[in-house]
Design a protein that fits this description.
- This protein is α/β, with parallel strands linked by helices.
- It has eight helices and twelve strands.
- The protein has helices spanning about 15-25, 45-50, 75-80, 105-110, 130-140, 165-170, 215-220, 230-245, and strands at about 1-10, 30-35, 55-60, 75, 85-90, 95-100, 120-125, 145-150, 155-160, 175, 200-205, 225.
- Strand 7, helix 5 (about 130-140) and strand 8 (about 145-150) form a beta-alpha-beta unit.
- The longest helix has 16 residues, at about 230-245.
- The protein is elongated, with a radius of gyration of 19 Å.
- The two termini are about 20 Å apart.
């Protein structure tokens, strides 16, 4: 039986396991999708060694960047982004090769594209982790100027305290790439001036549980267009499957 899975920590919120196992059952595939919950990336070799039937796996928080040093090669896109969320496991005789890809960028760009209007020229990206790198890459590819926002002083970022009403009017696309607002902390939201939002703003949240985060609720109350991360998740899952199963 072929195995696939999800590597991350913690994985209680994972959508992928149910999604892929339902897909395998519906399509009559002799395959199984497992959660590989490891508290440290150094546990990866053991996961690979103890699962010889493993054909590929997804990577989530907090290992999208840390996994790169364990891989044998990267797709050009994953290299440019600096984050990996799909690994293809290639067995050549006794050798096992791990190849890293990024399907987040496909999922994100294809799901936000229909909502973009001509006035959406600049974006704030909340967060600086692996997902925000894919979002940043995707927005720039679509010709949108970006600024990353962090809670800490970092190179090439601004602090939340720098987001004034004028900033959210100029950077009218705002993408939340942080876990702030995710269940069970759904009473929290990123610290931005929501009162300054209006119908020109587009708020996109990578979180899909709950369906409508407080971040999106507050945006909607002020007339902004809002979207959660469920379609992105589905699109990146389809792309993961294509990567794992296409012949190379």
């Amino acid at each position: 039986m072929d195995k696939y899975g999800l590597l991350g920590y913690p994985l209680g919120h994972s959508f992928s396991k149910n999604f892929f196992n339902e897909k395998f059952e519906n399509e009559g595939k002799n395959a199984k999708y497992l959660n590989f919950e490891i508290s440290d990336i150094t546990g990866l070799p053991e996961v690979i060694d103890s699962n010889p039937e493993l054909k590929g796996f997804n990577v989530t928080i907090p290992y999208k960047e840390a996994i790169i040093s364990y891989l044998d090669s990267l797709s050009p896109e994953a290299r440019a982004i600096g984050a990996v969320n799909v690994v293809k496991v290639v067995h050549k005789g006794k050798n096992t090769q791990l190849v890293g890809y990024n399907s987040d960028v496909v999922g994100f760009t294809n799901s936000i594209k229909p909502l973009l209007k001509p006035n959406h020229k600049k974006a704030l990206i909340l967060g600086t982790g692996g997902a925000s790198k894919a979002v940043n890459y995707g927005l720039k590819k679509m010709g949108i100027e970006t600024v990353l926002v962090s809670r800490y002083e970092r190179p090439n970022t601004i602090l939340y305290s720098s987001i004034t009403p004028e900033v959210v009017k100029e950077y009218n696309v705002i993408v939340n790439c942080t876990p702030c607002g995710m269940y069970p902390h759904d009473d929290e939201c990123p610290n931005i001036p929501y009162d300054a939002l209006d119908a020109d703003n587009l708020l996109y949240d990578l979180i899909y549980n709950p369906d409508e985060t407080l971040f999106l609720q507050k945006g909607k109350e002020h007339g902004a267009t809002v979207k959660n991360g469920l379609e992105m998740l589905l699109l990146q899952a389809f792309e993961s499957w294509r990567i794992w199963t296409e012949e190379k």
